[in-house]
Amino acid sequence: MMQHCMKNITPDSLTGAIFAVEGIRDACVVLNGPTGCKLYHSAVSDGQYSRCLSFDPLEFAEEFYFGQPRIPATYLDGYDYVYGSGEKLIRVLKSISSKDYGLIAVINSPGAALIGDDLPQILKQTLLAAPCFAIENTGYSGSFAEGYQNALDKIFEALPANSTQTVKKSVNLLGFHIYQKHFEYNLKTIKKMLALCGIRVITSPCAGDTAEKITHRAEAELNVVIYPEYGERAAKQMQKQYGIPYIIPTQGAPIGFEAAENFILEVCKKLNAESSRALEELDKVRARAYLFLARYSSLLGLPKGALYSICADSSTAYALTKWLSTYLGMIPSAVVVTNGTEGIFAKKLRTFLKDIGYGEAMNNPIATSPAHIVFADGNTLAQMRLAGQRVGGVEVSLPSLGYMDVMPKTFFGGEGVLFLLEQILNGLRFLE
Amino acid sequence: MAEIALYGKGGIGKSTISANISAALAQRGKRILQIGCDPKHDSTRLLLHGELIETVLSYMKRTPPDQYRLHDVVYEGVYGIHCVEAGGPEPGVGCAGRGILTTFEMLERLHIKDYCYDSIIYDVLGDVVCGGFAVPLRREYADRVYIITSGEFMSIYAANNILRGLKNYDTEKSRAGGLIFNARGIADEQENIKRFSEAVGLPVLMQFPRSDLFTNSEKENRCLVEKYPDTDIAADFLDLANTITNQSILYQAKPLPDEILEQKVLNAKVFRGAAAKTVDFSVAEKEGKKQNNIIYSKNLISREPLSGCAFSGAMSICAQVQDAICVAHGPVSCAHITYQSITSLGRKMLLERGLVLPASVAPAVVSSEMRESMMIFGGTEELRRKIIEVKKQKPKVIFVLTTCPSGIIGDDVGMVLNLEDDCTKIIPILTDGNIQGDYLQGILMAYQEIAHNLVDKNVEAEEYTVNIIAEKTVATATHPSFNFVKEVLDTLGIAINCRYLYKTDSNAIKNLMRGKLNLLAYEDYMGRAVKKFLQEEYGALFMDMAFPVGVSQSAEWVRWLGRFFSRSDEAERIVARQEERYWDEIKRIRPILQGKKLMIITYSHQIDWILKTAIDLKMEISFIGVLNYSQDDLFQTEFTTEIKELNIEYDIRNRKKDIARMQPDILLSNYSNTDLTGSFFTDTIPLCPQAGFLSGLSLAGRWGEFFRMNLKEGWKDDAALYEKYNA
Fold first, then answer.
1. Helix pair angle (B568-593, B551-564), 10° resolution
2. Pick from A233, B125, B231, B604: CA 20 to 30 A from residue A87's CA?
3. Other beta carbons within 10 Å of B577
4. Domain CATH number, residue B163
5. Closest Cα in chain B, distance from residue A406 (Å)
6. Which domain holds residue A395?
7. What is the distance between the terminal CA atoms of chain B, rounded to a whole angstrom?
8. CA-to-CA distance for A137 and B372, rounded, in angstroms?
9. Cα–Cα nearest to A319, from A264, A252, A374, A261
């Protein structure tokens, strides 16, 4: 059927820039653009990082909000494209100036970027009390990562570090954003692991910290880049500006036991911190996993030999692939990297798959390659159903099918292993 | 470092003057960078002795961004002057203003200003036609601005426009340096310039006469100051360069209103609106020549802020044609947003009901992925390539939908129509993002364009067939409502010919006229507009009612169908069976809800299905507030006498006050809200209710259970805890 040939259309640099700022707890993105660009981003931002209790649009009835809590917009129309958006922009900025935001970012939509309104000048004119900046062009059809990193540069410019006094045994965690599945609890899990090692997290920009907290970033002794596709540029910039060294854990995001242990050991080594408590906790989880795997395997012979497919960012895909194949003995069917094939973990992933004899998995179409368990976004999982595949699906990226995760979930550390294992073992049971 | 912008109307000689100023400064040992900001890219030609250099934009087009280097675009001219040309698209395509923005962004990214220039000269095209050409006026670029003009009408007119542009940017500081008079030797030239200079309060810094020396030096591709260094004109350029770089007093931009400019400065006679007559087209109109037969959305007609964009609305409809591919001509972001909006229903239906809806799970949408260079040079070539690529999948139709950027730069999408062949029809839908209107306008455009291009008017109607018209593509009620309708139609022995436009294909659309009767899904603004269009242009026969919601409407609807298709007996049997179920349930819950006060605040304009059930339950309808809604504007009810207080165009600011005044037992709205306190029960009305006899009862049943059990929602007492731990 023709539709199966179509690829998912994933977010680009506009969305990357907007969600970088929306991930700051007390920041506000003002979108200089039409409501068509605003409504989607506001809905996703609110869904991923909820900061209000109601969907009631009447709660957000004021001009520029269009019944949503996030991302006021100048609702540009054909007239504004001809005559400019300055007047509306000044009005929206004045209307939000009393809302006590810690950071305000004006971001042009693709159309607004063409008309060349002087956003910095308008920001200057409106004399906002909060730190503010403008992104006149987020890049047309750029990658999500480009938009995110460009916005992060601007965020750091607008929020200069207020102290460079190093706090011993402390880190910043880089690369998180709100368009990651379970970002909040992934972050909490890492913080818990590091706390067991006596390591404090100063900030994790764009993933729930306030603007003020981001100004403490220069106090960190080390930057830990969890997702290099989003965080490495910031790490390099902080190394240059403040002399803070950084690491990218060699096993990628702490998904699976080996990667989690490696993560702890590498960070602790850099900071001369004590890793034993965190490793012991992981051992306890290993023991629990062993019980379930042994019983499951004795009854069904699985999960060894079950086919899996993955569609995710490279740092997630690499760690997940390694764990599934080296710890559970599962077989890769299709592994799709959504953020380009040139990043360090995309390259490591290719090498790893080649080494275990499944190099072709990165070229296989995910919708039609046979699999038992699929780790992907909701669209991909739905398309596999459309293609007639009956698979167990685990959402590791967005958009979601819409299941509400009331119980916090994580992919990271011991808790993440147990969550994924539960999904795999139960998912395989329902297959014919 | 001085940053100097020289503006002037095209062809006025500003490049010649800019180059001579640069040369004059460089002769005195100054380090100069000249940036030409004109798509015809000849600003630095004289400085480079006639050599044409690669422009920044052409370089960016062929080079990956990580390989951008200054040495590829900065050329050395006479006296060591550094020369850069922005370049731009061919006339008539792309967006030259965007090109200037892009050039400046790149030069800034490569830190060109770190190279210790004494002066940067920006040579900028014409009057300030758009924000792109105004970039050098921005604070971080030019710190002084000079206007080159002759004494001709249009040149002074352009000079005044440049001052307007400058005034927009100069709210605190003055940057106008003065006028440079490049004489053309026409009558009254001196006087015109004098009057203009006095009226805008700017000095004429230098006057250059019309001279063969310019022509002769340009013939040899030399600046005058280089070719004839010992002439008076060369000396004037040295003086001017000296004045400009040392000028300490700058002036405020004070442009003149057009009328004063034309009357007082240019001595032109102006007549405003007195004698001009409009043209009478009434005869042509009587002959049937329609001027404006487009159907417009409520947003456009009411001149309200646009809700969503026409591009996305049109795409949501086109994606329902399952043997078509939609090409979104624009940047990926536009396609991404729309794609996610369409697939949101597919994901939801899979999760909640296990249903796989092909058009919502894998809509055939691709993006032409417009990049920066396409914004500047135009994107039709890339669009052609994309269409050739998708044609390989042999779709019956390719829809080309345009976004804001492609609309703004004026891409001519018609240029891809010659790719059409016997296998694939190409249908452009020129939504231009939201330039043509809101989401609903896009839906209406798609309905019309698809009909005009695909429906065969000559197909004969067949007995016992119906079309279903204007279902909602992103509503969860669409599927169950269709099931209800289909079940009734199956019982009556009536076939469905085409769902226009939901889960259909080009062949079904072509044969739309085969359907004898058309059944409208919703009688809202969109439904009414599509119905009117099909009636007027295709003579389509419609049932008087839309899909029925609630017991009364459903009974009437089924009976109407029975009469129309001579199947009244079967219809009566359906009604009797369903009404019996309805009344049994009403009798069961009436004792619980009788006398309860119902208050409704809603966007929904059709709520009789709820009111009828409430009345049958002998509840009191104490208050209805109807809110302004982008998708509808016609509130209708049969029950005006039963409603105690009805407020059309309800002001939401009165909500809390009215709730306190009415003291309802049940508050119905489209969204519930924890902020509304009181002892009432709250429930939500779906914006798109499900068709069928029992729709109202499914709501009332819930209220009945709630009041029967006298249930409490204990979680509502935990607001303080939420504030403590989460907020």
1. 180
2. B125
3. 11
4. 3.40.50.300
5. 14
6. 296-429
7. 51
8. 10
9. A252
Compare all CA atoms of chain B with the CA of A398 and give the residue at the minimum distance.
Answer: B340
Least CA distance to B363: which residue of chain A? A3
Domain hosting B531: range is: 462-547
Contact status, residue B497 vs residue B515, Cβ threshold 8 Å: yes
Are B234 and B242 in contact by the 8 Å Cβ rule? The answer is no
Respond yes or no: is residue B618 known to be catalytic: no
Domain count, chain B: 4
Average pLDDT, chain A: 93
Query: In the structure, how many helices (H) and strands (E) does chain B have?
Result: 27, 21
* Residue A139, token pair as written in the block: 């890049």
- Domain for residue A152, yes or no? yes
B207 located within any domain: yes
Question: How far from B657 is each of A78, B442, B623, B625, B675, CA to CA, in Å?
Answer: 39, 38, 13, 13, 13
A–B CB contacts, 8 A cutoff, strictly below:
225
Asked which of A82-91, A199-208, A327-336, B527-536 is least confident by mean pLDDT, the reply is A82-91
In the set B14, B386, B396, B612, the catalytic residue is B14
- 3-state SS class at B619: coil
Contact A2 B395 (CB under 8 A): yes
d(CA A43, CA B483): 30
Contact state of A1 with B358 under an 8 Å Cβ cutoff: yes
Quote the pLDDT of residue B295: 85
- 8 Å CB contact of B101 and A56: no
Helices (H) and strands (E) in chain A, counts: 16, 11
Angstrom CA distances, B163 to A140, B178, B191, B588, stand at 32, 10, 20, 78
Question: Would strands B82-85 and B75-76 be described as parallel, antiparallel, or unpaired?
Answer: antiparallel
Question: In B, which residues are within 8 Å of A386 by CB distance?
Answer: 356, 358, 361-362
Q: Are residues B185 and B47 in the same domain?
A: yes
Residues B447 and B473 in one domain: no
Nearest chain A residue to B133 by CA: give it: A116
Task: Tell me the C-alpha distance between A222 and A167, whole Å.
Answer: 10
Q: Give the residue, B655 or B202, on which the prediction is more confident.
A: B202
Q: ipTM for the complex?
A: 0.94
Q: Whole-model pTM?
A: 0.85
Residues of A in contact with B307 (CB under 8 A): 35, 39, 66
Contact: A109, B404; criterion CB under 8 Å: yes
Q: Is the pLDDT assigned to residue A64 strictly greater than 70?
A: yes
The active-site residue out of B38, B123, B127, B170 is: B127
Identify whether B457 is a catalytic site residue.
Answer: no
Q: Which two tokens stand for residue B689?
A: 């209710």
Tell me, yes or no, whether A64 lies in a domain.
Answer: yes
Query: Is the Cβ pair A385, B350 closer than 8 Å?
Result: yes
